[in-house]
Design goal:
The protein has helices at residues 3-12, 18-29, 35-51, 62-71, 89-95, 100-113, 148-159, 175-192, 196-208, 214-226, 230-243, 247-258; strands spanning 75-76, 97-98, 119-121, 128-130, 137-138, 145-146. Strand 1, helix 5 (89-95) and strand 2 form a beta-alpha-beta unit. Helix 2 runs parallel beside helix 8, helix 8 (175-192) packs antiparallel against helix 9 and helix 9 (196-208) runs antiparallel to helix 10 (214-226). It has twelve helices and six strands. By secondary structure, it is mainly α. The chain starts with a helix and ends in a 9-residue tail after the last helix. It is globular. A two-stranded parallel sheet has the order 1-2. The chain has a two-stranded antiparallel ribbon with strand order 3-4. Strands 5-6 form a two-stranded antiparallel ribbon. It has two domains: 3-170, no CATH class; 175-258, Alpha Horseshoe (Serine Threonine Protein Phosphatase 5, Tetratricopeptide repeat), CATH 1.25.40.10.
Length: 267
């Protein structure tokens, strides 16, 4: 099977193998990566984290787990500009620096193996974690507790004071949603570093995961434009036009389609 097929095979398991699926994303960008070797090394990290946890009920160990990760050097990558390795799990495991989502995926796998209840939350701009039933969220970058006022402040820092906190921002994330978010992050990071082929690999994965938005089709269309593939660009622009509810965006998409050469037939 190809790495992409392995990726979807992980999602079809019951329960889905979230962490392993994220590693197959890494293989798409590094054909020499050995997933089994990474999983074997992860057992050592699991033991190191486990040995440092206090003797508490498992329902109270989520924050200590995140603090233990921080003690072992796991922290948010503050390198500017942010590099794709901040979202690739194999690189994050090696360098212990990454985006909140990458750190969160590692924490979720540790919590699964140690039977500590924890779920992901697709909070805008900064992935978060939650203990089911708790009245707070947890920052995967160190384990800080976040109550509604803290979440509101975090949202304002990311998007400005006009962004309102809503219940939608605090919903638990399903495995497909987390992996789609990871793919979008990688798409943007590879694009920012002018690696259009790598960005296209991620853009295709975003769409294959389903429930893609007009913005997702536009992102891939822009990559096809840079790679001088007008037929593929047209396909994605037409899909973005069908999905868009913004009348101004629809006008711009129609104009952009009008400037493309007619579809050519390849013999």
């Amino acid at each position: 099977m190809t790495p992409r097929q392995r990726f979807f095979e992980c999602l079809q398991r019951s329960p889905p193998a979230l962490f392993e699926a994220a590693l197959w994303v890494c293989v798409e960008h590094d054909k020499d990566l050995n997933v089994e070797s990474v999983l074997a090394d992860f057992r050592d990290l699991q033991q190191r984290v486990s040995y440092g946890l206090p003797m508490l009920p498992v329902s109270e160990l989520a924050q200590p787990l995140l603090r233990r990760m921080n003690d072992l050097g796991f922290a948010q990558d503050d390198f500017t500009p942010l590099r794709p390795q901040a979202a690739l799990l194999d690189k994050v495991l090696a360098h212990r620096r990454g985006q909140p989502l990458a750190l969160g995926l590692i924490a979720l796998e540790l919590s699964r193996r140690l039977e500590i209840p924890m779920v992901g939350v697709n909070f805008p701009g900064h992935f978060l974690l939650r203990v089911p039933g708790a009245d707070h969220l947890l920052d995967p970058c160190g384990g800080r507790r976040l109550y509604p006022s803290d979440c509101r402040e975090l949202l304002h820092r990311q998007y400005g004071p006009n962004m309102k906190l809503s219940a939608e921002h605090l919903v638990n994330a399903e495995p497909r949603q987390m992996l789609q978010r990871l793919s979008r992050n990688l798409r943007q990071l590879h694009l920012a570093h002018d690696d259009y082929i790598a960005a296209l690999i991620d853009a295709e994965r975003v769409l294959e995961l389903g429930n893609a938005s007009a913005a997702d089709y536009l992102a891939r269309a822009s990559l096809y434009q840079r790679l001088d593939c007008p037929n593929a660009e047209r396909f994605d622009l037409e899909h973005a036009l069908m999905l868009s509810d913004d009348p101004i965006q629809r006008i711009r998409l129609t104009e952009r389609l009008g400037h493309l050469p007619p579809n050519s037939i390849v013999h």
